[in-house]
Amino acid sequence: MRDDAERPEPGSVGDEGPAAASFHHTRITVSFDYPVCFTSGLFQPDNPLLARVVARREPERRHRLMVVIDSGVERAQPNLAGRILAYAAHHDERLEVVAAPRVIPGGEACKKDPRHLQTLLAALHGHGIDRHSFVLAIGGGAVLDLVGFAAAITHRGLRLIRVPTTVLAQNDAGIGVKNAVNAFDCKNFLGTFAPPWAVLNDLDMLATLEARDRIAGLAEAVKVALIR
Description:
Oligomer: single chain
Strand content: 25-35%
Number of strands: 11
Shape: globular
Structural class: alpha/beta
Order of helices and strands: EEEHEHHEEHHEHEHEEEH
Helix content: 25-40%
């Protein structure tokens, strides 16, 4: 961060004789980095990836974690919440899941209804999730958008780990820094730019997708590659 005092140009604001103001232009450069990982069986107890990613900067601490799951993912994998709790129990020295995983509606419905955001914010507050805690978001792009927005505005930014569960989310919403919800009948009217702590792509999550959805996600990847 650099604070440079500069003399105003002639005729500019502040060039008004003896009482002219001084100008200080503040330049802030912030760099972010986060791992984007690919694995299979993310919540298998013998897969150390999640535990390692959570503890990557503070390996000696036990970290608190709140889990949010897309309802579509929960329907396709009804035992997912139990597997996550079993994983946390296996890695008890590093992970503490603060409550049973929360399930929220998937798709645009979760971004349109402000009650979902308010309920999520109330849960974050109620469980005492602070800037040293983690939010684990598992789902498609809309759920990642909603949970990411809630995490970004709570305590000015919580540690968010994304687990995108569609091909499209794995090459778009999951790896970017944008988070948003709809408001006033306007898509993504409320939003933030906030990088995640990590992105964990579990290839097994794609196994339950319809062929049409897998093809659509691959088409998006090709489109982005052609544009770039």
